[in-house]
Amino acid sequence: MARGWDENDAEHYERPRRRTRPRTKDRPTYDDAEAGTVVRVDRGRYTVLVDGHPVSAPTTAMKARPLGRKGVVVGDRVRLVGDTSGIDGALARIVEVDPRRTVLRRTADDDDPVERVIVCNADQLVVVAALADPEPRPRLIDRALVAAYDAGMAPLLVLTKADLADPETLLSTYRSLGVPWVVTQKGAEVEAVRERLAGRVSVLIGHSGVGKSTLVNRLVPTALRDVGVVNSTTGRGRHTSTSAIMLALPAEDGGPGEPGGWIIDTPGIRSFGLAHVLPEHLIEAFPDLDEMTEDCPRGCTHGEDEPECELDEALEAGQVDPDRVTSFRRLLAARESSDV
């Protein structure tokens, strides 16, 4: 026997199939829908923290059919109807998705036309890289920075395992870009990292084995993220995080009040396609360089081999820091190279 629909069921208002009479012409307004933030996505079920509800009592929800194929990802601000109590067995329905402030994307490969949204509405992209075991991969770091600039997010570089290698070699590569950085090592306090995350929504990315899950467990002791090891033969880590999850940082006073910020832990990555990033969007992240390229020929990408690029003229005239131009062009080249 088919169940009846009530006013909270979006299907109640669904456009009828052909040769059937409309159920109703009144469309829902969802004035009484509750707002919340998606903190986890798992096989068609969404874990949502409803505004005003305790962090310890998230709501399980599903996506309403009228949303169609519209993707809902971690960080999305949504509106829900139904049972938002968070008790065991309760199920709400996501009926609306708010416009996104920032969107972090990547493609599987550089020639892949399909963009994959990783997270939304984050303020800061934290690139976690190990100084050794496994060896750092600057190309992947460069690509992550390109994605951050394209998304309008502030970048932060966190270098782990400083007890195994000197961080200066890697840091010298990024100083001219003005990327802030923090160095950590095994057993050391993580307060310097916590200070950079306070009051922000930060998404952590890094390839497998760099110590990202260990860092998350230090920042949020209740997270209990699985920690893997690095394969001694391949020098690569094993994927331990299988899905993105948004976690509340403990409040500064350690009490049960408002969180001290939010972090989004993502699965380890081994590729970071940037087919969606346009050169003109990348240079906009560097206002000083962007201003110098106003008179560049149409279609100029501002790369090293571009004829009549205004950046070259600025270099000859001594009007710009050569290291900064070199670093920008390295990011531009990283966008076009799949070698990470």
Describe it for me?
- The structure is a single chain.
- This protein has about 350 residues and is an alpha/beta fold.
- It has three domains: about 30-95, OB fold (Dihydrolipoamide Acetyltransferase, E2P), CATH 2.40.50.140; about 105-265, Rossmann fold (3-Layer(aba) Sandwich), CATH 3.40.50.300; about 280-335, no CATH class.
- About 20% of the residues lie in helices and about 20% in strands.
- The strands form three sheets. Strands 10-9-8-11-13-12 form a six-stranded mixed sheet. A five-stranded mixed barrel has the order 1-2-3-5-4.
List keywords for this structure.
340 residues; alpha/beta; OB fold (Dihydrolipoamide Acetyltransferase, E2P); Rossmann fold; 3 domains; six-stranded mixed β-sheet; five-stranded mixed beta barrel
Summary of the model, kept short:
The chain has eight helices and 13 strands. The chain is an alpha/beta fold and 340 residues long.
The CATH superfamily of the largest domain bears the name P-loop containing nucleotide triphosphate hydrolases
Uncertain residue segments: 228-240
How much of the polypeptide forms β-strand, as a percent range? 15-25%
> What's the architecture of the largest domain in CATH terms?
3-Layer(aba) Sandwich
Number of helices: 8
Structural class: alpha/beta
Largest beta-sheet characterization: 6 strands, mixed
Number of domains: 3
Task: Name the assembly state.
Answer: single chain
Shape: globular
- Please tally the β strands and state the result: 13
Amino- and carboxy-terminal Cα gap? 56 Å
User: What is the CATH fold-level name of the largest domain?
Assistant: Rossmann fold
The run of helices and strands is EEEEEEEEHEHEHEHEEHHHH
